[in-house]
Structure of Peroxidase:
Amino acid sequence: MFSREKARKKMEDWRILCSTLMIIMMVIEGGEAQLSENFYSSSCPRLERIVQQAVKKKHDQTFVTAPATLRLFFHDCLVLGCDASVMIFSPNGDAEKDSDDDLSLAGDGFDTVIKAKQAVEANCPGVVSCADILALAAREAVVLTGGPSFSVELGRRDGLRSKKSDVTKHLPEPDHKFNELLNLFAKNGLNQTDLVALSGAHTIGAAHCSKFSKRIYNYSQFSPIDPTLDPLYALQLQQQCPPGVNPNIVAFLDPLSSNTFDNTYYKNLFVGRGLLTSDQELFTNLASRPTVIDFANNPGNFNAAFVTAMRKLGRVGVKTGNQGEIRRNCAAFNS
Ligand code: HEM
Ligand SMILES: *[C@@H]1O[C@H](CO)[C@@H](O)[C@H](O)[C@H]1NC(C)=O
Ligand SMILES: *[C@@H]1O[C@H](CO)[C@@H](O)[C@H](O)[C@H]1NC(C)=O
């Protein structure tokens, strides 16, 4: 009697499990699957540890790892969605990464993803997308430099297209004014708070002199130097970037703590020390200035807004279900 009760209960549990699985499978078939934090919990349970170790190893070798990987994620998501399309190598030089806007992406970001993918493939072959590995690696970049940790939604599929011509007008330019930045972010479901928070990624890394030389030499017919720049800072930048623009010289985006993910970036904006026009605009513009001041005074508010915005960025244009593919090699389509 007792054991029959038990057997019937088991049978019931089994039925509930089956119908749940059916629903899950139907959702996936329909291509309507959502990202989820535990997407690989049974197919690749050690995934996050593996990516974490691979990124840490690379970070110990070269500091460029963190800024390069974080920027790579942003550029991937804004062009055709977060689908690792930026990773594709084309022998004809006509892939996304060959565009003018992507040529300055540091090679160490690509290498980080390739190495993490190799480590993941050794454990769970053919299961985890390059797009997800890039999203996880970007999180590790933030954590390794002292920024906030956060859970990453997973389940992205890798894109089947990567064209240089797709990049045009999809990425922000360093000389963009506030409204251009706001509109471009809005097209990706990112609002003004997200714009200000994500720009805080410029708390690490560097920019080539060519990206801001106009601000220190050739601003306008009335003033050679951008008046929103602190004059002393402008002088320092002129010394760092002599006229004529050597394409190899870079300046730190946050010179006070370029290796640390903190809120110094916003304190710099306060005193006219945003390196790019797009940085300083966030303070110049009166609509976003209160957010800059808030993030400069409250690192906790910055961290929370950054995490929210990174998760939103990670959802932009994602392919799920049976869209796209799981690439074997992140730099090449499967066939
Ligand atoms: C708001 C509009 C943005 C503009 C106009 C912009 C533009 C730029 C430019 C021109 C550089 C210098 C590239 C070079 O000369 O090598 C740069 C670097 C960088 N950007 Fe942005 N960016 C923006 C937003 C973002 C966002 C949202 C992220 C990430 C969440 C990001 C992450 C980075 C990082 C980490 C670097 C340093 C890269 C390195 O050191 O290799 N940027 N950005
Ligand atoms: C932007 O969106 C976030 C939620 O994703 C919200 O908390 C924030 O208030 C929004 N900011 C603006 C300016 O609408
Ligand atoms: C300033 O701009 C002019 C005209 O575009 C250019 O010829 C000149 O080389 C620029 N100077 C510097 C220092 O970049």
Observations:
- The first helix runs from residue 2 to 29.
- The pocket of 2-acetamido-2-deoxy-beta-D-glucopyranose (ligand 3) is lined by residues 213, 217-218, 243 (CB under 6 Å).
